[in-house]
Amino acid sequence: xxxxxxxxxxxxxxxxxxxxxxxxxxxxxxxxxxxxxxxxxxxxxxxxxxxxxxxxxxxxxxxxxxxxxxxxxxxxxxxxxxxxxxxxxxxxxxxxxxxxxxxxxxxxxxxxxxxxxxxxxxxxxxxxxxxxxxxxxxxxxxxxxxxxxxxxxxxxxxxxxxxxxxxxxxxxxxxxxxxxxxxxxxxxxxxxxxxxxxxxxxxxxxxxxxxxxxxxxxxxxxxxxxxxxxxxxxxxxxxxxxxxxxxxxxxxxxxxxxxxxxxxxxxxxxxxxxxxxxxxxxxx
Length: 284
Known about the structure:
By secondary structure, the chain is α/β, with parallel strands linked by helices. It has eleven helices and 13 strands. It has a domain at 4-154 and 180-209 and 254-269: Rossmann fold (3-Layer(aba) Sandwich), CATH 3.40.50.720. It is 37% helix and 19% strand. α1 (12-21) packs across α7 (184-196) and α8 packs parallel to α11.
């Protein structure tokens, strides 16, 4: 029987997963919001659906696996809001369901370590929405749910090099501020490993081995490019949008032992240094 993945909100991370699955003979159906993006998906071998809009009943009926990348909002999870009843009706028939969440559900820990057993105490509105969405998916009876809490995502087209080259990169300094990160190719291999080894009810932190201050990443990118290091700016006085400033509201180091011990994953890019070096090589 052909394995069929129905991917809601088929974006950057899901695309990387698709690049692993389609060569293995998978059928992938992906939803997107516009006809233009649907054409892009079709060119990658994904069967596109515009959602909300198109009827996804047939896709839900044939899917063996579900992946949810669509983010929640103040009204809750958009997929459950639209087709939650249909998903619940055949929840036990899906062999695997994956929900892409965020490490933001843990909140601020002052730079200390968190793992998957750390209580969820988000300090931002977006983190609270994610916590509620995780709970909503987990409450579906008989659903074989796997939760992936993603750190900051980078990869092709999502690295610091363009801003460093343009002279617009900023080194915002906030004492004891650290972020965890993950390369999109490692997200793909972690999710694929879970699909191959289902363990319903499990949450996985998806991050690399080296939580680091954001200014260190910018400095390293400049070093790789042989360009001047952007000047340091104090967080308290730096001009920033409310959205940009909100990313500094939380500081924590995220443990990733479970993806290694339970899924047997060896990260392709265990730190941002390997990841940035690969991005630079790919872009030249």
